[in-house]
Design a protein that fits this description.
It is a single chain. By secondary structure, the protein is an alpha+beta fold. The protein contains 11 helices and 35 strands. An 8-stranded mixed beta sheet has the order 6-5-9-3-2-13-16-15, with no helix packed on it. Strand 11 and strand 12 form a beta hairpin. Helix 6 packs across helix 8, helix 7 crosses helix 8 and helix 8 packs antiparallel against helix 11.
């Protein structure tokens, strides 16, 4: 027997199937053994009507043992054909495993290519701990946020963070839809009513970070400090906030804080009484209200009016008594205990806001003028705002859109049309060119996604800050996908984080979330976990980045954040930090661990540890033990007491500096 034949026989004897999991104690079936993926080329097509995804996945890998068979992770979907090295291969399905037997066994340390053709309707993942994730359909397409194992719901993968690879995406969708993926757009082309969008992600990426989003998006691309940003925002979120109910115009309060904006009209109320009504679309902060003021002409008997149902206009005054708007003393009083009473020097407080009726709600309200029967009354529809107090929403809201005012006497009934007398006798104060009430068309209305626009516009500023702390940005592309999708969380999908729209209701929270997801580009994306139990290295670091951002902006120090959370009850400390995947400790206890380390070694050394960590492990994977080793090497100190107490053991650690 010659040597070549002998080698073949020996290879055949020792070749074995690759493991059906990567050995992660939390998710034993995630990932696979026997090979290392180097590159995925994913060509997918999507039909929004049926929800069917068709895929042609080319997986380039290298064996890490002699293989007689191997697995790819694939949940659901129908496999139509598999080849290995260009030759048809046998396959079977075993739960979430696609078990592939090549025509010839594979030797150790050889490159091979697997091609899988598949199709079907990807299924969303609903997990009681993390909520909705994976492949999530929307009204015009889909978004993908696949942590921890959503990749397998839409392409065959070695679905574990320990096997990072580069990617190419070719996404074919009906003309008029846009596809967004990780990395750089390399081009698109249309044929037969469908457009193919091509992207290249050339930095190694964990499978759960791979993403594609399809829909009608408004795109904004720009370059800042050498980084190319692409933001894709669901066009439904950038449409005008509100449209006229009738005709072509409506009255808009405009924004601005603080402000006191009125439209006023004199009304002669018959002896039989009368009424005032209008439609209002309110988008207000906690410290902003719409209300109707009234007083008898010639008398200082100002009051505000409740609506007839008693439902819309509430008597809750919030913190409006702080003196910013002195005229409100007619309607409310600061009590000795600090509360704001809804009665003042001449009248009572009744007002409408998003806080008591819901954000962006449309309200139809009617007011009874019987108390002014037989008198002349001055009516004012007023929008008032003041700076937010402690704990209040500080987002500068759009304000109020007013339409179809009806006065039973006819005086002042109007829809604010451009008919020669737009205001129909109502007087605006201040004048509209002073940021007061203004008649506008729908096209002139501000977009609903104004918080999205403002938050995403701060990405370069945030990136510059994070770079100063963590070292150079690990990639060349950045940006965001924001979709009106039923996702339960934002995700740091590499180079292009994915956000559900509800992240962007409160502006401070939205910016903080953007900080968190961008910080993940260093911690979680560039440096990925070896096992899911190390997830605090992702979430704790990104949470601490939020603390650092707040510290930089004067919104509280990291020490104050630490002190706040150190008081959590014993149940919170019951498990070691490296013994959880999605629970709050990986975020908060993780950040607290970093703060303890920072206090021990000092700021200069602490940030040098973080920069060294990224520079050393960029493009790869690392563990909690690796981080301890890095911290000890850079600081020149033994830090086992910190890592033992804060990471590896249960119980509430004692703070020792």
């Amino acid at each position: 027997m010659n040597q070549a034949i002998l080698s073949f026989v020996l290879a055949a004897v020792v070749a074995a199937p690759g493991a059906a999991g990567a050995g992660d104690p939390y998710f034993p079936q995630d990932g696979n053994g026997g090979y290392d993926v180097r590159h995925y080329d994913l060509a997918v097509g999507y039909d929004p009507t049926s929800g069917v995804l068709t895929g042609h996945a080319t997986v380039d890998a290298v064996t890490t043992q002699k293989l007689s068979a191997f697995d790819l992770d694939l949940t659901g979907l129908t496999v139509n054909r598999v080849t290995v090295g260009g030759t048809a291969a046998r396959w079977t399905r075993d739960g979430g495993e696609l078990v592939i037997t090549p025509a010839a066994k594979l030797a150790d340390r050889v490159a091979f290519t697997v091609v899988v053709d598949y199709s079907g309707v990807p299924q969303v993942t609903d997990d009681p701990e993390i909520g909705t994730s994976g492949f999530v359909r929307t009204d015009d397409g889909f978004v993908i946020a696949g942590e921890p194992h959503g990749a397998a719901t839409w392409y065959p993968a070695n679905d574990h963070p320990s096997d990072k690879a580069t990617y190419a995406f070719h996404v074919t969708v009906p003309d008029g839809l846009t596809a967004i993926a990780n990395g750089r757009l390399t081009g698109n082309s249309s044929r037969g009513g469908r457009t193919t969008w091509n992207y290249a992600a050339t930095a190694p990426m964990a499978s759960y970070l791979a993403t594609v989003s399809v829909g009608r998006y408004d795109l904004r691309s720009y370059t800042a400090n050498g980084v190319r940003y692409t933001d894709a925002v669901d066009s439904a979120l950038t449409a005008p906030e509100h449209r006229p109910r009738t005709g072509s115009r409506m009255l808009y309060s405009q924004a601005g804080v603080p402000a006191y904006k009125r439209i006023s009209h004199l009304v002669d109320v018959p002896a039989s009484g009368g009424s005032l009504g209008f439609h209002a679309h309110v988008n207000t902060a906690d410290s902003a209200y719409l209300f109707v003021e009234a007083h008898t002409v010639g008398d200082d008997d100002w009051t505000t009016l409740p609506d007839e149902t008693g439902y819309q206009m509430r008597d809750w005054a919030g913190s409006m008594c702080d003196g910013t708007l002195p005229f409100l003393a007619h309607y409310m009083t600061r009590e000795a205990d600090g509360s704001c009473s809804p009665t003042g020097t001449t009248g009572a407080w009744w007002a409408l806001s998003s806080f008591n009726s819901g954000p962006g709600d449309d309200s139809e309200v009617t007011f009874d003028l019987a108390r002014y029967a037989g008198k002349q009354v001055e009516l004012s529809v007023t929008y008032a705002t003041k700076p937010a107090g402690p704990g209040e929403d500080s987002t500068e809201r759009l304000g109020v859109f007013l339409d179809d005012v009806t006065v039973s006497t006819g005086q002042g009934s109007t829809s604010f049309e451009a008919d020669g007398d737009t205001m129909d006798g109502w007087t605006a104060s201040p004048a509209s060119d002073d940021n007061g009430w203004k008649s506008i068309t729908a096209a002139q209305a501000p977009a609903a996604g104004y918080v999205i626009t403002r938050a995403l516009a701060r990405q370069p500023e945030i990136m510059e800050f994070l770079t100063s702390k963590f070292g150079p940005y690990p990639f060349t592309e950045a940006g965001a996908v924001v979709d009106d999708a039923p996702l339960s969380f934002a995700l740091e999908t590499q180079t292009r984080p994915t956000y559900p729209s509800d992240v962007f209701w409160y502006e401070d929270k939205a910016v903080s979330t953007v900080v968190h997801e961008l910080a993940h580009q260093w911690f979680g994306d560039a440096v990925s976990v070896e096992k899911w139990r190390d997830i605090w290295l992702n979430e704790g670091f990104a949470t601490y980045a939020q603390w650092l951002w707040d510290e930089r902006n004067g919104s509280g120090t990291a020490q104050q954040q630490f002190d706040r959370f150190y008081g959590l009850d014993d149940e919170y400390w019951a498990r070691p930090l490296d013994d959880s995947v999605t629970s709050p400790p990986v975020y908060l206890r993780g950040a607290m661990t970093l703060h303890v380390l920072r206090n021990r070694v000092g700021d200069d050394t602490f940030f040098r540890i973080l920069r060294t960590w990224v520079a050393t492990h960029k493009g790869g994977n690392a563990s909690s033990a690796d981080f301890q080793a890095t911290a000890e090497r850079v600081s020149g100190r033994q830090l086992a007491d910190i890592f033992t107490a804060w990471v590896f053991e249960p119980g509430k650690p004692t703070v020792v500096k």
